[in-house]
Design goal:
single chain, alpha+beta, Four Helix Bundle (Hemerythrin (Met), subunit A), six-stranded mixed beta sheet, five-stranded mixed beta sheet, about 45% helix, elongated
Length: about 850
């Protein structure tokens, strides 16, 4: 898959998620114009991105969704729940197609009919009078386009800037009018925030169909450069075009509310030719001053130019920049010659005024030779050279302060972007300027600051984690080397040096490990963001009113942990909606608000992430749970009578247990909470349920921040070493053999006022050797916690605590449930990690 396609898929998922969130926000605040504008921008951008590839099925659906949102944004129809349903279905369909693309780099052919039906369903919500049917942008289906209003009668007067259109352009336009082509004058006024909406008004203006001429003018006086807000567009684009109304309506369809358009009367174009507008002897100063830079006074007489150059250096620099822009425009057969004559005349006059008679003569001679031979290339090159030389000579005279009196103001220079039928953005190296050279259509800081975030393939991060694992193993080998140096070779000084280096390497390794872990960290919002849509759809299906509250969405944990959370949390949320929360009628009968509340919160506690799912529903009935468990054969009659309420509630984690009366697509199959517990325990987490009948239920999930590096305590039993994850270790203690008591067939001891059951690790592992006592006849006891209970493991001794990279057991060893994995020690030996939950 190409990098561009991979980026498209990644961005499509992000955009789809954001679109879903905005649609949910609009259900609560349908009149929030800011959210609606942002939603339209997201769909518009996603549709544009899909157009980079041959995915007409996707583009068609997004096109229809964009049109529908455009009508809602213009206030022609109101936002409704039905509209939200259609748009959410459309985004689900887009994600299905993204799945096809990810698998096969193409969309399945069977999606074509689904795409047409989806687009038709969206367009069915559009009122017919508000649209004009034109050819769709994807070339497959017609598109409903907001019409651009055009005055039926011609205005009484010509557009205010029509007299500033160069005469040669107006002559061409007049001739086209005689041939029957339509002419329109367009005023395009982008909204100030257009850059944040993904629009490029300059690009749109230059791509206007049939464009003959255009200029950009500030709609308000521009402040000094230091005070200018580069994030606001304050320009209006005035355009003369020979395109039909329908083609213009299609081009400006996404900004139709920002465009005004009138027809042009051919009589307005009846003006005198360019030659009559030029001064004597071909002096084009007046034509340049009036037609290219409106607002700039005509150049003074030659004898006053030296003083003028000294006082108005900045203004002249702007004039020279304009001349260079004129030269870089694409060739136009009907006015190429006049343009070169005009620029050459200005440069010749400036050269004379600067006392450079030879330069002036050279320009005039080159102009005559060019006109005689019809070859303009050499003249163009000469004019470029003189422009560069003149601008360099003026550079030292431009005032240093931008607010200097010599700096031309907006009213002196004006803002002009000259374009022609053959002009294209790529043909001009000079960037369009607005007033005093301010760039627009792009954020100014982009030229200076690179992106502050970087997307990295997860495989690269995993490789770094593997390298860190190897570094941890190598680091752990240093204490063994130090011990050998001292004990085996008797070199105590070398042993101390090795231990000193170990402390340095240990610090660096810990910092590197922490830094890489921060890269792998992901906010729980990755999982939480899917719940608003899930709660909305299920609650509507069940006929319940539910308010979802999300807290602590920025809490972070390892990416693998967060991704493993998705399925367990979805099970819990579905159970809360189906079993926990009541219908509005039942809640009101119980004295509760009609709308139930489901709260999902996350928080970091020490080195763990705690997630709670709390509802204010009917709670769990322990008696009903015990009865169901007994009927299913999960507990016997003696257990039924003996267990308490909390133990009964914990039975919801038993496989095959369900309290649903009717089997549905949501519940009743006895599969759910047992899967939740298995998934949570698989990532070394715990899940605890508490409930109060009639008040609600709370499910608390505790997870480690990361599974990449595991801290274990090494213990010894039967001359073998084992690792116990520190998450399960409560404390280590030595108990005299005389303090151990037998209750029936089990050892126990009293520790800190409570009875703790004791089990020999050798016995649990099938080793028929009793634990060893020390010289004082004391047994080593490792207190561990599993499933909310504390148990003492009798072992032979305790060793150090180390960090290891735990690897799962593979092959036939994977069936050994007593071990959760293995780790490589610093001396090259393999350490087996005990699965405390399984063995106790």
């Amino acid at each position: 898959m190409s990098p561009l396609l991979e980026q498209f898929l990644s961005e499509s998922r992000e955009f789809s998620q954001s679109i879903g969130e905005k649609l949910m926000q609009l259900e609560d605040a349908p009149n929030d114009q800011g959210v609606l504008d942002e939603l339209f921008r997201l769909v518009h951008t996603l549709k544009g991105n899909s157009g980079l590839f041959t995915f007409p099925e996707m583009t068609r659906v997004l096109h229809a969704g964009e049109d529908l949102l455009g009508i809602v944004r213009n206030g022609q129809i109101a936002y409704s729940r039905e509209l939200a349903d259609r748009l959410l279905d459309a985004m689900d369909f887009v994600m299905v197609m993204c799945g096809d693309i990810e698998s096969t780099e193409s969309i399945d052919a069977s999606r074509a009919q689904d795409s047409l039906r989806m687009a038709e369903a969206l367009r069915a919500l559009m009122p017919a009078p508000a649209t004009a049917v034109l050819a769709g942008a994807d070339g497959v289906a017609p598109a409903a386009v907001p019409t651009i209003s055009i005055a039926a009668p011609l205005p009484d007067s010509a557009p205010p800037l029509l007299d500033e259109v160069p005469e040669v352009i107006r002559i061409d336009a007049f001739l086209q009018c005689q041939g029957g082509d339509p002419l329109h004058w367009i005023v395009y006024s982008p909204v100030p925030e257009c850059f944040f909406q993904g629009d490029d008004p300059l690009y749109s203006a230059r791509r206007t169909p049939g464009l003959l001429w255009g200029c950009a003018r500030p709609r308000e006086p521009l402040p000094p450069l230091a005070e200018l807000d580069t994030y606001r567009c304050v320009l209006d684009f005035h355009l003369l075009t020979a395109a039909p109304r329908e083609e213009l309506a299609e081009h400006f369809r996404y900004v139709s509310d920002q465009v005004k358009m009138v027809r042009v009367d051919p009589l307005w174009l009846a003006i005198e030719p360019l030659d009559n507008a030029m001064g004597p002897d071909g002096d084009a100063s007046r034509a340049i001053g009036e037609n290219v830079l409106p607002g700039v006074a005509p150049l003074p007489a030659a004898e006053t130019l030296p003083q003028f150059l000294a006082e108005e250096a900045a203004a002249l620099d702007a004039i020279l920049s304009a001349q260079q822009q004129i030269l870089t425009l694409g060739d136009h057969p009907s006015w190429e010659e006049g343009r070169l004559k005009a620029v050459a005349a200005v440069l010749a006059n400036l050269s004379k005024a600067a006392g450079d008679a030879s330069a002036a003569s050279g320009i005039e001679a080159a102009l005559s030779e060019s006109l005689a031979s019809g070859q303009s290339a050499s003249l163009r090159a000469l004019l470029y050279a003189h422009l560069d030389a003149r601008k360099e000579s003026l550079a030292s005279r431009i005032p240093a302060q931008p607010n200097s009196p010599a700096t031309p103001t907006a009213s002196q220079i004006g803002a002009r972007v000259e374009t022609g039928p053959a002009a294209a953005p790529e043909a001009s190296p000079a960037k369009p300027v607005a007033d005093d050279g301010i760039k627009f259509g792009r954020r100014a800081e982009d030229a200076y600051n690179g992106p502050r975030t970087l997307k990295v393939d997860q495989a690269k991060i995993d490789r770094l984690m593997n390298l860190i694992g190897e570094l941890v193993v190598s680091k752990n080998a240093l204490p063994y080397l130090a011990q050998r140096a001292e004990v085996q070779f008797g070199v105590r000084e070398l042993s101390r040096e090795i231990k000193g280096e170990y402390s340095v390497i240990n610090r660096i390794a810990d910092e590197m490990q922490d830094a890489i872990m921060q890269v792998r960290m992901m906010a729980v919002s990755f999982v939480f963001q899917r719940f608003p849509r899930l709660v909305r759809d299920i609650s509507r299906k069940l006929g319940k009113d539910v308010q979802l509250v999300l807290e602590g969405e920025q809490t972070e944990a390892d990416k693998n942990i967060i991704e493993s959370l998705a399925d367990p949390l979805i099970h819990i949320v579905r159970n809360s909606l189906d079993h926990g929360l009541e219908t509005p009628e039942v809640r009101e009968a119980c004295g509760k608000p009609a709308t139930g509340t489901l709260t999902i919160r996350a928080a970091q506690q020490a080195d763990r992430v705690v997630i709670e799912i709390v509802d204010d529903g009917k709670g769990i009935d322990p008696a009903a749970i015990k009865r169901k468990a007994y009927e299913k054969g999960l507990i016997d009659e003696a257990t039924l009578e003996r267990i308490g309420d909390q133990e009964a509630i914990n039975l919801i984690f038993a496989a095959g247990l369900s309290t649903a009366e009717v089997v549905s697509d949501l519940s009743g199959r006895g599969v759910g909470m047992d899967v939740v517990r298995s998934a949570v325990e698989k990532i070394n987490g715990t899940v605890v349920v508490s409930s109060e009948l009639g008040k609600g239920t709370s499910i608390r999930i505790s997870l480690p921040l990361s599974m990449a590096v595991t801290q274990v305590m090494i213990i010894e039993s039967d001359d073998q070493l084992f690792g116990v994850p520190m998450d399960h270790v409560v404390e280590t203690v030595r108990i005299p053999r005389s303090a151990i008591r037998w209750i029936k067939q089990s050892r126990t001891a009293v520790l800190r006022g409570r009875i703790v059951p004791l089990k020999a690790l050798n016995t649990l592992l099938g080793i028929s050797i009793n634990p060893k006592a020390n010289a004082d006849d004391e047994l080593a006891v490792l207190l561990v916690q599993a499933g909310g209970e504390v148990l003492g493991l009798l072992v032979d001794g305790f060793r150090e605590t180390i960090d290891v990279i735990q690897k799962p057991l593979a092959g036939f060893l994977s069936g050994l449930s007593a071990y959760s994995g293995s780790a490589l020690m610093g001396d090259g030996s393999v350490l087996m990690i005990l699965n405390i939950r399984e063995i106790v």
